[in-house]
Amino acid sequence: MTKFKQILDEDEILITFCIIDDITKAMGMQGDKQQKMSESEVLTVAFISHRYFGGNYQATLSFLKASNQSLFKNLLSKSRFTRRLHRWFGLLPSLFHLVSALKRKISLSSLYFIDSFPVSVCENIRIRRCRLAKGEQYRGYIASKRVYFYGLRVHIICDEEKFVHEFVIVDGRLHDLEGWANASLYYLSEGDKVIADSAYTRYDFEEEMRREGIEWEPIRRKGSRRYQGEEFEAWKRRARRVVETVGSVLRLYLGKRIQAVTLKGFLLKIMMAIISYNLHRLFCLAF
């Protein structure tokens, strides 16, 4: 077994490359024939970076150049790689939806979970010097930890197999209900159930979902109008650990600190981390 095989799962990388290559062909994004590194290879290297290196593209490229030349024979420099990846910024949502569609062909779920987690642009003490994002709209509050942060908030909805079906990235200041207002929820069907945190409580929205045959079940406090007993609420709290685990793993895919010089690059890394996570989950479910 080679050193490369010990550190990275070569089988997963090859299968992921094939999936990405088929999707890019379906999207008509094959790139120029004169390019030494294809679009599929660029996206696969980005997948490796978030899967194994916390989204550090420089470390990923250096490792691949030093350890194995059989998979990627024409690796780009860090700056050229970043420019090529930035071309995908507007297309990453479409790529995400196509990967999600593949998962639904493998297996369907009827139980979903929704949660949000903060992604800080910088430490609070450095807000005044931050050049990546400026404005009060980025000042958010984490109620569970009773701390403030400066950055963005990512809302995700996943199924019981820990696959993310939708994400929404909003300013840190927005409340969970405001942030999730733009979600499509197109993948939900009659009979599905969504377990949410108490912050997602909104009775008119629950009624609207119920008319469509979907149960929207936020965790309710004792004494609230729709409290259904401690046993059911305890089950919801236990079940929600799935999405909490997903959020923790996504933070690992983003690394301790997101290396970006523009807000666009910051957003790109968040989207690429979620797509990379889903590709890994797709591999785990299929193989």
List the main descriptive attributes of the protein structure presented here:
16% strand, 287 residues, disordered N terminus, alpha/beta, globular, 2 domains
Strand and helix map with partners:
Blueprint (H helix, E strand, L loop, with lengths): L2 H5 L2 H17 L12 H14 L4 H11 L10 H9 L5 H15 L4 E12 L16 E4 L4 E13 L4 E8 L4 H4 L13 E4 L6 H9 L3 E4 L11 H10 L1 H14 L8 H24 L1
Parallel strand pairs: 1-5, 5-6
Antiparallel strand pairs: 1-3, 2-3, 3-4
Helix pairs in contact: 2-3, 3-4, 3-11, 6-11, 10-11
- Count of distinct strands: 6
Element string (H = helix, E = strand): HHHHHHEEEEHEHEHHH
Largest sheet: 6 strands, mixed
Please give the domain count. Answer: 2
Mean pLDDT: 92
**Number of alpha- plus pi-helical segments:** 11
